[in-house]
Design goal:
Number of strands: 7
Radius of gyration: 14 Å
Number of domains: 1
Largest sheet: 5 strands, mixed
Shape: globular
């Protein structure tokens, strides 16, 4: 069974089944766009943003992520809430309904988190 969805060859980080993520061994990989990849493990998942593109996600947002991903340089965004930061910066990587969800979650949650980081 093939658990990898490829869009096109990329110059960015390529993640594979069996690679490590903050949530364990990667079981599925979906390339959303060049440099933006969704992964799933047995217990959780998230979105990986290639380090070459990470600068596009505002530092305040990156610092507000759940731990241990809350750093300027960590390329991982967990699937429950932090993925919305990626959707706001790279909307073309997400379907219309995902963008709507991201907009609402961002308004209700991420702005509050980044406000606390700034304090």
């Amino acid at each position: 069974m093939n658990n990898v969805t490829l869009m096109s060859p990329t110059k960015y980080t390529v993640l594979n089944i069996g690679d490590h993520s903050p949530w364990g061994e990667i079981e599925t990989v979906t390339y959303l766009m060049d440099g933006v990849t969704e992964v799933q493990t047995a217990s959780h998942g998230g979105v990986h943003v290639d380090p070459q593109l990470l600068y596009r996600v505002p530092i305040r947002w990156r610092l507000s992520r759940v731990k241990p991903q809350a750093s300027e340089t960590c390329p991982w965004f967990e699937e429950d809430m932090d993925w919305v930061m990626v959707a706001k910066v790279f909307p073309a990587a997400f379907r219309v309904e995902e963008r709507r969800t991201a907009r609402d979650l961002f308004r209700d949650f991420v702005r509050l988190k980044t406000f606390k980081v700034a304090m």
